[in-house]
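Intended use. Records like the one below are meant for learning the mapping from a protein sequence to its folded structure. Do not use them to infer anything beyond what is encoded.
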Amino acid sequence: METKRYDEEQITEAAAVLTAGGLVAFPTETVYGLGANALLPQAVAQVFQVKGRPQDNPLIVHVADFQQVNQFVENFHPLTEKIVENFWPGPLTLIFPVKEGALPKVVTGGLSTAAFRMPDSPLTLALIKAAGVPLVGPSANTSGKPSPTTADHVLHDMQGKISGVLDGGATRIGVESTVLDLSMPDVPPTILRPGAVTREVLETVLGTSIAVDAHLVQESETPRAPGMKYKHYAPDTPVWMVRSEDWPAVLEWVKTSGKRVGIIAGPTISEQLRYEAAAVFMLPEDTVEQAAKGLFAGLRALDEPQLGLDAILVETFSETGLGAAYMNRLSKSAAKKWFETGMK
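Structure written out for the chain above:
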C-alpha cells in the first residue's frame, strides 16, 4: 500500500477513505492522530493492528462539535457546559459515561466510559465534518514510541500501513491533550493525563479544585485513559533525565566515559558540551513550551540507528503548569531514570 500525503485541497478525498473504513492520519495542535471511523469496529481494529497497540487501551473519539457527543452520552457532569465553552476546541479530552452499545467496545477498551475531544485544527475539523462521522485518533506512531509531531514522523512509522496522512505541518504544542475524567457527576473532575490545559488553569476557570490521578498503569492493568502506561513514548535508545545543575557533571562524564551521547537541551548548555556530545538536538529557547514542542521530535531525531548513540540526555523542568505534562512524557520516555554523577 502506498501511503498518500494529502493537502488541504484533498480533504474530501481523505474523508471518503475514512468513511469507507480506511486509515488516514491527521494533524492536531498536540500531535498527529491515526484516524479511523469510530463507528466501524473493523476500521478501529486496524488502528490497533498497525500501531501494535494493546486492545485494552481505550481510544479518544475526535468530534467536530459538541452535538456529536450527545448521541453517545446520556449523563453529563454538571461542569461539562462550562468546560466545553472555555476549552473546546482545544487540547482537552473529556471522559463521559456512554450509552450501552453506542460505541464499539474496541473503541472504549471494554469500559463503560469513552473519551472525546474537539481538536483545535481547522484542517482536522473540516476532515471530520466531511467524513460525517467521529474519528478515533490515537497518536499516529508505533505503540510505545515517541508521538509524531510532523507528517514526516507519521510516514516514518506508518508508510505502507495506512492510506494516507493529512499534512498540516508541525504541531503547535507537541504533547498530547490533557485527559479530564467527568464520568462521575457527583465527583470533582480528575486529571488522568496532564497536558497543555493545566490543573491551575482549570481550577481558575471553573472555580473548583481539580484532582490529579498520578497512578502509572502497569502492563497487566487496563488503563482508564490513553497514555497512562508506566513506560511510554520511549525510543529504542535509553533516555536519562538531567537536572539543570547537573550539566557540568554531564560534560565530565561524556569526556571520560567513552559513550556516544545525544543531548536535547536549550542554548544555555556549554559550547564544550555541544562539541563533546555525539549529537545535539538544540531547542530554540530554554522554556518549557519549547521543550514540550521539541521533545518527541528530538527523541526521534536522536534515535536514528546511524547515530549509534548509547544514551539520550534530556533537560528537565519544574512540574508546574505545562511542566507537569512535559515531565509526565519525559519520565515515561526515560522509565524514570535520572543522570547521576559518578555513573559508569
